[in-house]
């Protein structure tokens, strides 16, 4: 998440997580039915809402190409998510994404991906 996204409400963060997951795994999810389990019932409301803010509408439009349904599960019943949400992240605020770009410039990554023989 970037700095602006860290200030989002819990509802927006949950929606952002769904959008991120569907974009990240797009090639696997695009032609398949999916189920989103959440303990945040407001997400179901947001998907049905017609007069949402521009940011939420944009996310809803992005998600409309996927065939999925949202199922509410109480936090106590969703053991995996409940446990993961309580784990401490020892690497929080340690990772700097700029380091990756410096170590692997986009040109080098592109050559690696396309099996360019001139790769260093």
UniProtKB/TrEMBL annotation:
Keywords: Endonuclease, Hydrolase, Nuclease, Nucleotidyltransferase, RNA-directed DNA polymerase, Transferase. Coiled coil: none annotated. Residues 1-66 form the Reverse transcriptase RNase H-like domain. Transmembrane segments: none annotated. InterPro entries: DNA/RNA_pol_sf (IPR043502), RT_RNaseH (IPR041373). Pfam families: RT_RNaseH. GO terms for molecular function: endonuclease activity; hydrolase activity; RNA-directed DNA polymerase activity. PANTHER family: ENZYMATIC POLYPROTEIN-RELATED, RNA-DIRECTED DNA POLYMERASE. This is Reverse transcriptase domain-containing protein. The lineage of its organism: Eukaryota, Viridiplantae, Streptophyta, Embryophyta, Tracheophyta.
């Amino acid at each position: 998440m970037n700095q602006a996204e860290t200030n989002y409400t819990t509802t927006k963060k949950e929606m952002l997580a769904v959008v991120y997951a569907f974009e990240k795994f797009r090639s696997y999810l695009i032609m398949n039915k999916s189920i989103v389990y959440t303990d945040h019932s407001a997400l179901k409301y947001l998907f049905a809402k017609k007069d949402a803010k521009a940011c939420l509408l944009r996310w809803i439009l992005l998600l409309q190409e996927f065939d999925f349904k949202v199922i509410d599960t109480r936090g106590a019943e969703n053991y995996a998510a409940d446990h993961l949400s309580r784990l401490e992240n020892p690497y929080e605020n340690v990772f700097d994404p700029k380091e990756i770009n410096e170590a692997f410039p986009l040109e080098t990554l592109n050559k690696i991906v396309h099996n360019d023989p001139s790769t260093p």
